[in-house]
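tmp note - HTH cro/C1-type domain-containing protein
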Amino acid sequence: MGSNLSGLDEHDALWVGRRLRQLRERQGLSLSEVATAMADEGYRWTKVTLSRVELGKRPLRLTEAKAVLECMRLPWRPYVLLLLSDDPFETTSHFGDVDEDE
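out:
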């Protein structure tokens, strides 16, 4: 089993899920679009899977975080750090500042 991005803490899983949802919505993508893109990459994801991750009911594995960010057409390296940040100002102030061509 892969490592969980959010570890074992339910609060962390909820936090990561909320951030992931914010990113998806900022990209203008639906649950279906992202789940389909993940399935196309070989992950067994459905809308329900993504919804459970966003609600903090299912942990996000590190390999999944990389793939889901790429499916949302975001550079995974800077955004995976934003998923983990507990500073609300950092998230809102940097979402639009990351160069998506990285």
